[in-house]
């Protein structure tokens, strides 16, 4: 069958000119890997980092079956599932965690290069540890997002690395002859008594970004009830709440698989895993209306590499849905983004708690 990139949709299906469902790097990856894919048996192809399904569904349209797929964001998984139904290819692939079963025996791997070198190191180590000895890895991206350090990371795990010519500002690295593979291990660091654990794909790694650090300084005292760390990242806020309030139960949620794994490791490292439930969720989709009394949020303002100002307002609306009347959203945000009117409109009365040279912390009370 003929696969049409134009039919791909994002999840959620929002209009944003800076978020594309397929690009020139996807097309170059597919062209460079065409011969290798044609010889791969069912179950031999693995796709990692497929934005909305362009790589997976194109490979399936070319006859690929038993394709194993890993996408870090849950929104990517849902876009792939929805697009596969649209094209009638839902039985051609399975979505899996970034774990040994994703790579075991793989002969061909298509990889959209992550921005983080640590994330690439985690992926390369798993491929080298569990893929077939003759595996060929096609790792591609937009030239503006690629660095020579990516070549060095791949050379740590592969004896041979070839580089394609650039086409339409995209390039592919082709890695062969894996060696010295390993399972990912989270990095660890201690900050003011909190142990932070981070797998390679987690934002800020085992450090604490300055926005989260400012929020930590201005968290309120809470009753022995329950709280939500929304977009939890490595779970720093959830761990801090649990450590400060020995009877508090915390829900930590994020759509990133790397963040969820990191937050679970952070909870365990701080001895509070029995009171922190970590879940992978799109926004707060699994939480009932009017079910929470306190939510902490440091909203991201990027989707992949693109600055995208529609993310935070959607998160504010989700927080408003889940908060009980009188419940509080404690948020930190870059002061230049001027989110206070949106918080007032979406959640309720909003007051400034603190402000420094870059960030503002606010408390919004649910109407």
**Largest beta sheet: what is the strand line-up?**
3-2-1-4-5-7-6
Portion of residues in helices? 25-40%
Instruction: Name the poorly predicted regions.
Output: 14-18
Task: Report the average pLDDT across residues.
Answer: 94
Spell out the helices and strands N to C: HEHEHEHEHEHEEEEHEHEHEEEEHEHEE
**Number of H/I helices:** 11
Class derived from helix and strand content: alpha/beta
Count of β-strands: 18
Biggest sheet, open or closed, and with what strands and sense? 7 strands, mixed
Q: Output the radius of gyration.
A: 21 Å
Distance between the termini: 53 Å
Outline: globular
What percentage of amino acids are in beta strands? 25-35%
Write up what this structure looks like.
There is one protein chain. With 367 residues, the protein is of the alpha/beta class. It has helices spanning 24-39, 54-61, 74-87, 100-103, 117-130, 148-155, 210-217, 236-244, 257-269, 311-322, 340-346, and strands at residues 45-48, 67-70, 93-95, 108-112, 136-142, 158-163, 170-178, 187-191, 194-198, 226-230, 249-254, 276-280, 292-297, 302-303, 306-307, 323-334, 350-355, 359-365. The protein has a 7-stranded mixed β-sheet, with helices on both faces. The chain has a 7-stranded mixed β-sheet with strand order 12-11-10-13-16-18-17. A hairpin with a 6-residue loop joins strand 6 and strand 7. Helix 1 (24-39) packs parallel to helix 2 (54-61) and helix 5 (117-130) packs parallel to helix 6. Mean pLDDT is 94; it is low at 14-18.
